[in-house]
Amino acid sequence: MRILRFSVALALAASGIAFGFAAGDGSQANPYQVANTNDLQEIATNNPNSGDYFVLTSSITGVDFVIGGSFNGNFDGDGNTIDVSYQGTLTGDDALFEEIGQQGVVKNLNVNLDYDLSAYSGNWGFVAGIAGFNNGGTIENCSAAGSIDAQDKGLAVGGIVASNAGTLQNCQSEVSIATDYGCNAGGIAGQSTGSIDECSFMGSMDVADSGFESIDDTANPTIAGGIVGYAWDTLMTVQNIPTLQQMQKSSLMQAVW
């Protein structure tokens, strides 16, 4: 069972919630305007209705919480950047959005990451820039930069998404990723059963080379790749992908470059 960060339990029902944004009504023509950390907290603590629209009107710094639950709205970053910093103990849901649901869209968003995490007590945990789990949603025209240092076994770690079962379109990652053995790590996605189209990675990876680790009494290898670490049933279009700058100490198994 994954551990939720402090603002993401989302116990309130989605229906009928009145958001506290300064402008917007959540429609496509007049989206809720997200201008600061407090506005992001509104999304994190009040699960939005499916189909609600949000637009980021300025870059935001100092985000150290997760937008939890399954996000099924439409979040347009409008080319702005969110600085995300997670320090200390791994929760297993270490990403800006815990989950993007089937109706969810996140687009035109840049994230700058500063993650220094360790001591995960669960089984499989998710660590990424945009979303921990893309559960049938769409992430498009997004980018991630900065660093992810997640030192423990049993993690899916990705620059954009940890585990992808949806669509990733035209995303770029320049994240420096460091992780431990027994993990699935990728510059774009740690693991994927979904679609990855025209994405590129120009960061670096430093992953442990100790081979297999027993997780849930199952032997799990260290699997890493420039685009995705572990991929199955994945439709991928790769065009004009730049050269990966650095790859260290990896046991490359089932990796997609």
UniProtKB/TrEMBL annotation:
Q: Looking at the record's lineage, which domain of life comes first?
A: Bacteria
Which N-terminal residues, if any, form the signal peptide?
1-22
Q: Which UniProt keywords apply?
A: Signal
Name of the protein this chain belongs to = GLUG domain protein
